[in-house]
Design a protein that fits this description.
CATH superfamily: Nucleoside Triphosphate Pyrophosphohydrolase
InterPro entries: NUDIX_hydrolase-like_dom_sf (IPR015797), NUDIX_hydrolase_dom (IPR000086), RppH (IPR022927)
Number of helices: 4
Number of strands: 8
Shape: globular
Strand content: 25-35%
Helix content: 10-25%
Domain Nudix hydrolase: 8-158
Number of domains: 1
Structural class: alpha+beta
Radius of gyration: 15 Å
Largest sheet: 5 strands, mixed
GO molecular function, one term: bis(5'-adenosyl)-pentaphosphatase activity
CATH topology: Nucleoside Triphosphate Pyrophosphohydrolase
Function: Accelerates the degradation of transcripts by removing pyrophosphate from the 5'-end of triphosphorylated RNA, leading to a more labile monophosphorylated state that can stimulate subsequent ribonuclease cleavage.
Organism: Nitrobacter winogradskyi (strain ATCC 25391 / DSM 10237 / CIP 104748 / NCIMB 11846 / Nb-255)
Order of helices and strands: EEEEHEEHEEHH
């Protein structure tokens, strides 16, 4: 059996979807990563297929989780951000193959209407990742995410903070 510290990171992407008011999409997560029901909200994220471009993966994942296609790319964090999942969860999450995620993050402007968002029947027939969704001020995101992902969200918010004000016209 592979030791936790020797497990690799799963390569993933994350998307900060910002509306015209400068608010950010968050979804109420349904899944095995939940270790505390207090922190069940997150931004869309998901795995990168072997050989897949990260920007294309991010657009695909956003569509598969929200049905959203009406976006404009605003920014990208050049670094890969990582987090470790708790050891108690590691044996169940991703069938015990990974210790956490290595993520490339993008910020995008949502240029569609809210009725484009469909988490109940997401794009390409994928299983729903979220049970509810809402628009949230960017500064609130770190308090909504599960604690082991919080350092990544702190960095994402710091990197993209200027985009919320620009979107809101402030």
């Amino acid at each position: 059996m592979t030791r936790y510290d020797d497990l690799p990171y799963r390569t993933c992407v994350g998307m900060m979807l910002i509306n015209e008011r400068g608010l950010v999409f968050v979804g109420r997560r349904a899944g095995v990563e939940q270790v505390d029901d207090s922190y069940v909200w997150q931004m869309p994220q998901g795995g990168v297929d072997p050989g897949e471009d990260t920007w294309l993966a991010a657009k695909r994942e956003l569509y598969e989780e929200t049905s959203v296609r009406s976006i404009e790319k605003l920014a990208e964090i050049p670094d890969w951000l990582t987090y470790d999942i708790p050891r108690v969860v590691a044996g169940r999450a991703w069938k015990g193959r990974y210790r956490g995620q290595r993520q490339k993050w993008y910020a995008v402007r949502f240029i569609g209407e809210d009725n484009e968002i469909n988490i109940a029947n997401p794009g390409d027939g994928h299983k729903p990742e979220f049970t509810a969704w809402r628009w949230e001020p960017m500064q609130n995101l770190t308090g909504l995410i599960i604690p082991f992902k919080r350092p990544v969200y702190e960095r994402v918010v710091k990197e993209f903070a200027s985009l919320a004000g620009a979107q809101a016209g402030t």
